[in-house]
Amino acid sequence: MASASASLLKSSSPVLDKSEWVKGQAIRQSTVSVRSLPSGPSSLTIRAGSYADELVKTAKTVASPGRGILAMDESNATCGKRLASIGLENTEANRQAYRTLLVTAPGLGQYISGAILFEETLYQSTTDGKKMVDVLVEQNIVPGIKVDKGLVPLAGSNDESWCQGLDGLASRTAAYYQQGARFAKWRTVVSIPNGPSALAVKEAAWGLARYAAIAQDNGLVPIVEPEILLDGDHGIDRTFEVAKKVWAEVFFYLAENNVMFEGILLKPSMVTPGAECKEKATPQQVAEYTLKLLHRRIPPAVPGIMFLSGGQSEVEATLNLNAMNQGPNPWHVSFSYARALQNTCLKTWGGRPENVKAAQDTLLTRAKANSLAQLGKYTGEGESEEAKKGMFVKGYTY
Amino acid sequence: MSCFKGKYADELIKNAAYIGTPGKGILAADESTGTIGKRLSSINVENVESNRRALRELLFCTPGALQYLSGVILFEETLYQKTAAGKPFVDVLKEGGVLPGIKVDKGTVELAGTNGETTTQGLDGLAQRCQKYYEAGARFAKWRAVLKIGPNEPSQLAINENANGLARYAIICQENGLVPIVEPEILVDGPHDIKKCADVTERVLAACYKALNDHHVLLEGTLLKPNMVTPGSEAPKVTPDVIAEHTVRALQRTMPAAVPAVVFLSGGQSEEEATRNLNAMNQLKTKKPWSLSFSFGRALQQSTLKAWAGKEENVQKAQAAFLVRCKANSEATLGTYKGDAQLGEGAAESLHVKDYKY
Hints:
The complex is a heterodimer of chains A (398) and B (358).
Chain A: H1 18-21, H2 52-62, E1 68-72, H3 76-85, H4 92-103, E2 112-117, H5 119-122, H6 132-138, E3 142-146, E4 151-153, E5 161-163, H7 169-179, E6 183-190, H8 198-217, E7 221-228, H9 236-256, E8 265-266, H10 283-297, E9 304-307, H11 314-324, E10 332-337, H12 339-349, H13 356-374
Parallel strand pairs in A: 1-2, 1-10, 2-3, 3-6, 6-7, 7-8, 8-9, 9-10
Antiparallel strand pairs in A: 4-5
Helix pairs in contact in A: 7-8, 8-9, 9-10, 10-11, 11-12, 11-13, 12-13
Chain B: H1 9-19, E1 25-29, H2 33-42, H3 49-60, E2 69-74, H4 76-79, H5 89-95, E3 99-103, E4 108-110, E5 118-120, H6 126-135, E6 140-147, H7 156-175, E7 179-186, H8 194-214, E8 223-224, H9 240-254, E9 261-264, H10 271-283, E10 291-296, H11 298-308, H12 315-334
Parallel strand pairs in B: 1-2, 1-10, 2-3, 3-6, 6-7, 7-8, 9-10
Antiparallel strand pairs in B: 4-5
């Protein structure tokens, strides 16, 4: 199976100059990329066409040491739940105010390399009238975009779901690129209490592979996210077993779809016991199982593995990440957290302008903690009680 | 493998079996607005809603034609249209014992990294759309996947992606009461011989049925709309018997007996050619656990269109031409066509357009 040639791999430092990957791309490269030559059985040229180099650079930039992703791509409905939890109405103005708070936190780019946006936010401006995308870029943060269209029930399965969003994806990703996005995200789920059935795993993996191929073709680094839900009372060994199967299938289909591994990022769930399992695991155990999974299933060509928090508390998510970074890894092992970065910040803000600075400080505190965790240097000093609160919601739907 | 049996299971099985009733077949009248525009412009008729409506009324109200049809595939616009007298087309068809069907795919897009191969879109929100169509009276659906034969085509990626899309579409339809017609069309374009077409058709159908099984589709509640196995458009022609032999053999090798019927597409064959080929298949003495029928678009409408030419005074003449083709194809499903259909103008004309884009 052909994949990107070795010449695309550079041994340069992963921390790249902003100008190399962002605003310089004013002229969109032609998507009339090289197609297969008419002669010869092995003439099929590969993937990612005209964007290959850029994809590799972007992926490496996001996967830079000491940094991770801020996931702020809650759909309007989900954002509504967050706002409701602090007594705010789900209006565009409130969503704008909240996202402004996040993206303008001073110095955020020290700890955050990428921010995933929802479509509304990609086209929004801050309350000061500046484009959200521009603010992020100035902060040295790569803008990303959620491109899936949510989960729907999967007939013939055991009450499981599949993820929609492939229709028109090529033109949508091209438009998002024009707007300044440089990576994309697609979240599908797999449920252990429900099986998972072979059909659900196959459908999840195939959808991710098709999405990744289309994203790369249009200049966006695809974040590949098959979330194995925390729900259930299963032990850590069962999670490990399911995760191995899921990742094997994901990479098989990625290869079938000629996706260039050097130009993707992964967003897996950590290998933990189910939320209702009586036996809890220590961060060391989580790290041990998770790293074993990664070593067995993830090709080293993948530049970055950005874990999701999936309902863990802010501190738990940081501790687990830290435990995974106590030794060198062949890929950048980092975070892509939403609730585990925003929870305390959101509560501190409470919707009041006078609380903005304090809220931004808590965001920076969490971002810094996770940055240290990425470097394996987190010590856990000075964590608040709020930060230790679990955020698991049974049967959570986004 | 156990299939998904939702609340519509019995109805799906009944409707699929009905569509395969010997002596009947499907009129594919689901040309999108763009495509029907090409048909209309070929007879110098403007592509406006009233003309599209008039053409479909001409077809559906041809006296005596509906007895030869078990289903008509409609485009979304047509599903909600009425005759000039105000009767919904859906009712006209139902009263004539014909099931209304609906095209649900959203066209093809290129598969990057391939040599112009495509995949078909339309899965997003498909469940809701199927429900809506069921409420409007539709009882079966259609989704067209396209593959082509070339030096390196069809690629395994194209085969897998199209088969997967068909399977996902099929199960969603069944969840919502519509019998899915599974259509993996392998284009006739090219200089390849009939053996090559047979090889590719067998591989593609095998992949399709594997995917349908993986997705727990109820096969008894589906129909297949394949291409006939023929030489490429640029290769020397063969007789209907040769086509029949290769086609039926390909189906025997790949299509489970559980599928009630095959409704062939005409894919650019002339009206007469398509009828003769179908007839030859039904005369073949061999194992055929499914019925072999038609789902023709161009091969049912070509001479009708020419006779009509958009003029009110030609309607009767055009309807007569349509009736001739319906009856001929009905006989072909029984293997009793004698080749004596009064050939309307254009009935023997090839309808192949190279690299045809719908």
